Amino acid sequence: MMPVRALARVAVLLIAAGLAGGPVLLGCAPVAGPAGPAVLQYLGQRRVWPAATVAGTVVGGLSAISYDAGRDHYYVLSDDRSQRNPARFYTVGLALSDTGIDEVRFTGTQPLLDEHGRPFPPPDLDADPPVVPPDPEGLAFDPDRQRLYWSSEGERRPPALADPWVRIAGLDGAYRGTLRLPPVLTMSADRRGPRRNAALEGLTLSPGGRWLYAGMERPGYDDGDPPDRTRGALTRITRFDVDSGQPVAQFAYPLEAASPPAKTNGLTNLVALSDDTFLVLERAGSRRPVVRIFRAEIAEATDTLAVASLSDPAVVPMRKTLALDLSTVPGLTPLDNVEGITLGPPLPDGRRSVVLVSDDNFSPLQTTQFLLLAMGPVRP
Fold first, then answer.
1. Separation between Cα atoms, residue 338 and residue 63, nearest integer Å
2. Could you list the residue ranges that cross the membrane (predicted)?
3. pTM score of the predicted model
4. Is 328 helix (H, G, I), strand (E, B) or coil?
5. Are 339 and 311 in contact (CB under 8 A)?
6. In angstroms, what CA-CA distances link 115 with 47, 181, 185?
7. Cβ-based neighbour number of residue 78 at 10 Å
8. For every one of its 380 residues, what pLDDT tens digit does the chain have, with 9 covering 90 and above?
């Protein structure tokens, strides 16, 4: 990580009071947390100034967030494909209260490094061979092993092909290894394997640190068509054994149909409540998105690790129920392209915080925002 003095110089408060959102106590829906029945309640948001910078990097494209309780800060991943600055993550401090987010402070940034200890270069798909930097999308902090797991969606723009990956990084961004992916996630120039920009979108570590789960945004070619406005689809969530780095199981997750004006829908991230229960983010559209949180559980779902296609009628998908439709919560304005979710610390009233972050796609027409939910009985 950056030296303490350097961190102090870049600890820039990027939020103004005018960009804050207050608490809303409506729009709650049942969801089972790790200790049983609970509810999700929207408390408020804070937004980041457009084109804000930290240590010379542009803050944007925030696609994943993971909480470090020991340091009481968050690791936040940018999905910049090294086009503006090298692929990187940020450290962020949030001051949370029972009424919302009082402050957002970026305290540092760290490039993710390749196997040779170097930051990833900008893309050059016309080079021979093509230079294909990662497309970072998922991030999970491992408190026991003091490391990060991060995913790339890869690339499918023949002749430039790059497989998705799940890599291990130190807290200094250094390369620490790669998990082995199942064959169904191998990128191909043919109509098989993952679709472009629809592969490994979300990562979460189980509370005990035994399992890492990686969710695909939408189905691969072998698994059928993506969701449209008339029907949903099945996508895959892979379970990895953290100690061995091997995929050990896989499950079909049922995506909702797209909500107009969006043409499709996808899984953007997930967070584990237990070894087999999750909060899952689905998002349809990016500029006027429909963003929903579902409680999903593996239950009797089929292990699809060796299943060639999810169109097989014998496949039993995971079970899910709607926890909260953020698009319908009164007072939640604006609602942008929410892509990251993590469990945060207990709030002063005892409920568990759930923190979300949005990806502004580096667009002046969109917003980088942090949103706070409470998981637990509704407080007046």
1. 8
2. none
3. 0.92
4. helix
5. no
6. 35, 18, 21
7. 26
8. 444 334 433 444 444 333 555 443 333 334 444 444 458 999 999 999 988 999 999 999 999 999 999 999 999 999 999 999 999 999 999 999 999 999 999 999 999 999 999 999 999 999 999 999 999 999 999 999 999 999 999 999 988 999 999 999 999 999 999 999 999 999 999 999 999 999 999 999 999 999 999 999 999 999 999 999 999 999 999 999 999 999 999 999 999 999 988 999 999 999 999 999 999 999 998 778 999 999 999 999 999 999 999 999 999 999 999 999 999 999 999 999 999 999 999 999 999 999 999 999 999 999 999 999 999 887 76
Q: Look at the chain and count its residues.
A: 380
Instruction: Identify whether the C-beta of residue 133 lies closer than 8 Å to the C-beta of residue 87.
Output: yes
Between the alpha carbon of residue 130 and those of residues 22, 160, 162, 244, 326, the distances in Å are: 47, 6, 10, 31, 40
| Count of CB atoms situated within 10 Å of the CB of 228 | 14
* Burial group, residue 306, by CB count within 10 angstroms (0-12, 13-18, 19+): exposed
What local confidence, expressed as pLDDT, does residue 21 receive? 53
Residue 301 tokens read as 């779902």
Torsion angle in degrees (nearest 10) through CA of 30, 373, 362, 170? -100
Residue 248 region by backbone torsions, left for phi larger than 0, else alpha for psi between -120 and 50, else beta? alpha
How far is 180 from 250, CA to CA, in rounded Å? 13
Tokens of 159: 């002749």
Report the side by side order of strands in the sheet with 319-325: 266-272, 277-284, 290-297, 319-325
From residue 63, alpha-carbon distances to 101, 140, 225, 241, 364 in Å are: 19, 12, 24, 24, 17
Lookup result for tokens 């968050």: 74
Torsional class of 135: left (φ above 0), alpha (ψ -120 to 50), beta (otherwise): beta
Yes or no: say if 66 and 139 are a contact pair by the CB < 8 Å rule. Answer: yes
Local structure of 12: helix, strand or coil:
strand
Residue written as token pair 């064959």: 183
